[in-house]
Amino acid sequence: MRRARSIALLGAVALAAGCGSKFTLPAQSTGGLVPAKDEYIYTGSLSGVAGNLTDVLITRSSGTQLLVAYGADPDTFPSCDAPGRNLPGGTLALYPIFPTPGQPPLSIHFDGLWRPQHMAEGGGRLFVLDAGDTCQRYTQPNLAPKILVYQIGTSTALTTFSDSNWAEVRGIAASDDRTVYVSGTFRVSEPDETGRHTLRFRDGIWRYKESNGYGRDGNWTVLEGSGTGFVSHNKGVAWGPKSNPFLWVTDGEKQAVQKLAIETDSLSHGIYQFDGTQSGLRFQDPYGVTVDDEGNIYIADRASGRVLRYADNGGSADFTQLVNTGKPVGAPILQLPVAVAVLDTMVYAADPPSHAALRFERRH
Known about the structure:
Blueprint: H1 7-17, E1 27-29, E2 32-34, E3 40-47, E4 52-59, E5 66-72, E6 90-96, E7 116-122, E8 125-130, E9 146-151, E10 159-161, E11 166-174, E12 180-191, E13 197-208, E14 216-222, E15 234-240, E16 246-251, E17 256-260, E18 270-274, E19 286-291, E20 296-301, E21 306-312, E22 317-322, E23 339-343, E24 346-351, E25 356-362
Antiparallel strand pairs: 1-2, 3-25, 4-5, 5-6, 7-8, 8-9, 9-10, 11-12, 12-13, 13-14, 15-16, 16-17, 17-18, 19-20, 20-21, 21-22, 23-24, 24-25
């Protein structure tokens, strides 16, 4: 990973080059000086995706390096009886990592999906959250939310699992041992002062292990709450880096991103949180999050139209740079990014209003 270089170093380079020599000035950012050669620039996009693009993923297992994109119409029917309500509204497609304009998806078709919304990869598996249908799930159990598990490179589900207590799933993550983490709102039975149990809706993160047949791990949960380590209105979730993994989750109530310990003896999983202040503007709606193998965190801040890169320092995160710099001149504007995927120096951001996944590459 290329780190921001110090002012002193830049000055030394300039003096060594001589007054008449040309050298590239760095770009100023709140987090420090990022040399121009390390800036991100827009280099292309996967465009023309029909419907609402809700997630993007770059798969890396078994040498596969493909952009996985999902296009689906939003669930905006005026009523449960509206025309078209009983029709599938989504599709999942695989593309080359550098798709050419107008290129069709690769010849792998994911059948049986109703409204796929979120994806994750772990241990050579692709996990897809199919939201089903909020109305028909009560009369057609097969349309309840579920997660389908695929072998990377194939389109036939190996297995599926679900939980009747999922009220709304807003993000999923998967580890190398194929454990799945679900971020969202759940139905929880809680006792009142009289001892009677009442069904309530609580935000949190639950996990499901392959070794347990993807039944819920009832001994592990990230609870709803206001402090670090507790979540509220949480959305995207990520697992990583591989060498020393943690969970990363966007928290809508706190307008922050949290780093969470996976295994802990306390109720709180919290290590730290950061709110974007270092970038010069606090997060407005942190939505999607991912982490690369070197521990860099990438956040899609939907309301501010930004994708930001941070470096994890163990007990804090330092702002490194803005990904969508607006360069080169004439590059499309990122409007409302909801998801981000990373491979080395390449970043893809899903932008539903553009019906596209925009690609940015760090110059080196």
